[in-house]
Amino acid sequence: MRPAGEEKREGRGAAPSSVSMTVLCAESPALLPAAPLLGIVPDARAVFLLPLVLPALVLASAVVTVALVLPSVALGHWLGLRRGSGRRWWWVAVATAAVLLPAAGLPWAAAAVYGRGGLPGLLLFATVLYALSLPAALAAHTTVLRADAGRPVRSTGWFLGYGAVASAVVLVGASVVLAASG
Hints:
The protein is mostly helical.
């Protein structure tokens, strides 16, 4: 949201949607150690599905970006401006939780209709979705603020580099915890 009378600046850098998708793609490998907790147990035949993983990952990150992250950023900025505190990151975190309710509730309600839904499943799904979408929403929020302030916007390569390091740390930590517990 730009102030009235201010024209759009053309600059270099990434758009909030591409930043969000990049963050989601960079942090998704961290879900691999959690796959058994979600009921996904890979077997030897899963290697044939590897060529489908990257397009599915891009499609899933695009859907989460459009359905959850960008509305969360817009709602967070709107709430911050309405409350008079400006566009702050905590409004984006609150808005992400608010937008998450229908996003997590609809699949859970559909599963409940077919007799497979339960509150623990809903809480696990909502927690995973919130943990994945909050960093993407905060990165998109930062991108919008930097662009509106006329500062250079970071490229998606910057997010991929640091996201890969963060995902590697999570993978190693989760692997150590899973190995120690079982």
